[in-house]
Structures are given as structure tokens and as C-alpha cells.
Amino acid sequence: MTVLTKPEVIDTIDELRSRLCLKRQNIASTGAEARVVLVPTMGALHDGHRALVRRAVALGEIVVVSIFVNPLQFGVNEDLDTYPRTLDADVTALAEEGATFVFAPTAREMYPDGASSTRVTAGAIGGLYEGAARPGHFDGMLTVVNKLFNIVEPDLAVFGQKDAQQVFLVERMIADLNLRVSLEVVPTVRETSGLALSSRNHNLDEPARAAARSLSAGLAAAASAALKGVPAAIVAAHAVIGAQTLVKLDYLVVVHPHTYLPVADDYRGPARMLVAAVVGSTRLIDNISLDIP
Ligand code: AMP
Fold first, then answer.
1. pLDDT of the chain along its 293 residues, tens only?
2. C-beta of 240 in contact with ligand 1 (< 6 A)
3. Measured in angstroms, how far is the CA atom of residue 29 from the centroid of ligand 1?
4. 199 lines ligand 1 (CB under 6 A)
5. 77 CB neighbour count, 10 Å cutoff
6. Which end of the chain is least crowded, N or C, by CB within 10 Å?
7. Which Gene Ontology BP annotations are present (predicted)?
8. Is residue 189 within 6 Å of ligand 1 at its C-beta?
9. Among candidates 212, 221, 220, 209, which has minimal Cα distance to 249?
10. Taking the model in full, what pTM does it have?
11. Rounded Cα–Cα distance for residues 193 and 214 (Å)
């Protein structure tokens, strides 16, 4: 029987910093590399998160997984209070994946003066798509990611492609603010049905879950239709998703991978289709890369 080493669960910034410092020194004293890899999460871990942690373990010697449901990135009427919190199960999963530290601070630890007064702003793209539906969301996300980078000082940080606009904005923040961290992006992990894994899938009852599959099915139809151009890809996705009465589409857009602005109808080249919808009462997002010849 394999005995799993549980990661150390730490809830204060000072303690994490000193434990990290010691760990780095211990490894470095053996002459080995001591790369620190950060995986930021909000917990309620599923196989998508686990894929990120597996990648982190492959990339570095010290893996910090943060579990923090960041109040700054939730709007007043959003699901901050009901967001699933499953710390014990999360720690067990992280032991299986080989994480070194779990950083699970309270909101007071991260924001001792309440909502911190200094924020990172995501700029114009932060106001589009997810940002249009969730005002302030990306400022809150970038602020906490920047704080986590400063607390952990990772060599690498691992994010999921599932949150494509988030990846774009974190990449831009790293470049714009000259942060010393490299980004690693892991492909979206899906159920065999195609549905992208998400902590919010817990909230779907069976009819909503069946309807939610139309998002990934619509994206797959768009990827095939992209051979005929951007408008054909959009029509193909609408045909699949629009057939589901339980799905209230928020946006469906094809963006340029370097600017995240919508592409013109006659655009050719690499692109990404982004979709968001409320299914039953649960907001879901998904995306796929398109190659428009
Ligand atoms: P969250 O806990 O939802 O904030 O997500 C934490 C990280 O896990 C983010 O980088 C997400 O993009 C990533 N993630 C969430 N779901 C998936 C998935 N199905 N596949 C890959 N990465 C994911």
C-alpha cells in the first residue's frame, strides 16, 4: 500500500513564506533545483484542477496549491456564499497528486482592511465577455493572482484553458507589470460527454446537465464548420446550443487569440470561440480553438 504524504495546510501568509523559504533552502542544499510552482484555485477540486496539479508536479520540486474563494471577484448577486467549499476532500486529492503545500487563507488574512484599496485593473478586455456579465470580476481576479504571486514568488504558475479570458488577462498582466513568473496553460478537462469540468457543475440537476452538454457540442460543431469561415462557425454553434430551451445564451463570440477582440467575418487564421450561458440557474463558460483556413 502506498502511503501518501499529506501536503502541509497553511492559512497565514507569514507561515507560508517561512515554510517555503526553508523548503527551498533544504532542497538547494542538496544541490538540486528548487522550482516553486503555484496552482491558484477556489477549491471544490475536480479532475480539471488535478490535471493542473499533475502538470505542476512535473514542472517543479515545490508545488503550492492555493484554495481561496476570492470575495473580490464575485459580484453582489453572485454565488460567493453558496460556492462549494470542500477543504478536507481537496487536501486528500492534493495528497494523491503530490502537492507540497496547500495555502488556504481566510478572507481576513488576504484582505485585513476589507476590500483592499489597491487593485490591479484588467483594462478594456476585462470589460468584455465574462467581464461584461460580471463587472469587476477580472480586476478582482488579477488582484488576487498578483497578491498570490507576491506571497508565493513562484517560478511558474499553472492555469486552465477552461478560463480562456482569464489566461489571456493573466498573461497580459505578467507582461505589462514585468512579473517574474512563467505561465503554463493546461487544456480543458472534459467529461466523456464533452461537458467541461467545473466546480459549478455540482449545481446542475440531470435535465440541466444534459442541456449543458450543448455548449461543448456547439463548440465542436463550430470547430468543424470553421473550414467554411467565421459566420459558418457561429451559425453551427447557435444551431446546437439554440435547440436547448434550458440554456440561456449570454455570449458566443470568435476572438483573435492575440487581442481577444472579435474577429471580422472574413478573418482567416487562428481564433478562439468563447461561449457563456446560464443553464437552469448556473452560469457556465467554455471555449475552443478554431483554425479558419
Ligand atoms: P477555479 O477553482 O474555478 O478558480 O479554477 C482554478 C483553475 O483550474 C483555473 O486555472 C481554471 O482554469 C482551472 N480549471 C477549472 N476547470 C478546469 C477544467 N475543466 N480543465 C482544466 N482546467 C480547469
1. 667 789 999 999 999 999 999 999 999 999 999 999 999 999 999 999 999 999 999 999 999 999 999 999 999 888 899 888 999 999 999 999 999 999 999 999 999 998 768 999 999 999 999 999 999 999 999 999 999 999 999 999 999 999 999 999 999 999 999 999 999 999 999 999 999 999 999 899 999 999 999 999 999 999 999 999 999 999 999 999 999 999 999 999 999 999 999 999 999 999 999 999 999 999 999 999 999 99
2. no
3. 34
4. yes
5. 6
6. N
7. pantothenate biosynthetic process
8. yes
9. 212
10. 0.97
11. 10
Active site residue 137: no
Alpha-carbon distance of 270 to 171, in angstroms, equals 18
**Best of 49, 130, 193 for a ligand 1 pocket test (most atoms within 8 Å of beta carbon):** 49
Nearest CA to ligand 1 atom 12: 160
Atom of ligand 1 nearest to the CA of 43: 2
What is the spatial distance between Cα 76 and Cα 153, in angstroms, rounded to a whole number?
A: 31
Please indicate whether residue 41, judged by its CB atom, sits closer than 6 Å to ligand 1: yes
Domains defined along the chain, listed by start: 8-186 (3.40.50.620), 199-292 (3.30.1300.10)
Alpha carbon of residue 49 to chain centroid: 9
Strands of the chain, DSSP E? 8-10, 36-41, 62-67, 101-103, 156-160, 182-186, 247-255, 269-279, 282-292
Given the CA of residue 196, which atom of ligand 1 is nearest to it? 19
